[in-house]
Specification:
Blueprint (H helix, E strand, L loop, with lengths): L12 H17 L12 H5 L15 H15 L17 H7 L1 H15 L7 H10 L5 H25 L7 H19 L10 H9 L1
Bound molecules: zinc ion (ZN).
């Protein structure tokens, strides 16, 4: 099995471009091939802030690379032969981990409810569809996507730690890690005063109160 978390392997640039466009298509349209449905392209998000983007760096950015690889893998290989290390469920599928598993859902629900709405539920399809249809450029929509990527990443990371008998942190602690990661990501964007997305951090503090 390929070591998914190894950042050592180097793919040709064209592969990165392909994966990036498929991840982007998936994130915004729910399908890796329906690029035409994208409301905001990954390129838009990757633009420098003064050109209207979110100031996020592109695919080769380490954290983002991990998050996107993971999301890509989840999309292409939904089933797993392992049981769930969080709750003991025998059939650890993508759907179970995100977010039918009580451990995952406790974290996701507590952070995402203010952003995605009161009808939040553990269903993967519903969640992805909700993220897709929220409207690309509102603060809540941007935060919901950031939170989704970050939550998926941390839940997957902790799941792997447990698999190697190194994990075991509680939901409230993982929630704090996720909160901090999102906050750091927003702060790293450093919006100029008066930028229309300046409210991201303020809105995030409201969400995590
Ligand atoms: Zn579980």
């Amino acid at each position: 099995m390929v070591n998914f978390w190894s950042s050592a392997f180097i793919l040709p640039a064209k592969c990165y471009d392909t994966i990036e466009s498929m991840c982007s298509a998936f994130l915004w349209s729910g399908s890796p091939t329906q690029t035409h449905k994208a409301k905001v392209s990954w390129e838009d998000l990757s633009l420098p802030k003064d050109e209207g983007g979110l100031g996020v760096r592109k695919f080769k950015d380490t954290a983002r690379t991990f998050a996107l690889k993971l999301i890509w893998r989840l999309f292409t290989k939904p089933a797993s032969l392992w049981g769930c290390g969080y709750c003991g469920e025998i059939n650890e599928t993508r759907e179970h981990l995100f977010f039918a598993c009580p451990y995952s859902y406790t974290i996701w629900e507590s952070l995402a409810r203010p952003l995605v709405g009161r009808n939040i539920n553990p269903d993967w399809e519903w969640t992805v569809n909700r993220l897709r249809t929220m409207g690309g450029k509102s603060l809540d929509s941007i935060l919901a996507r950031m939170l989704f990527q970050t939550t998926v990443y941390y839940i997957w990371k902790e799941r792997n730690s447990r698999r190697h008998r190194q994990g075991g942190i509680q939901t409230d602690q993982l929630r704090r890690f996720i909160d901090k990661a999102v906050r750091n990501r927003i702060c790293s964007l450093r919006y100029a005063h008066g930028h229309k997305l300046e409210g991201l951090l303020r809105r995030w503090f409201e969400v995590t109160l």
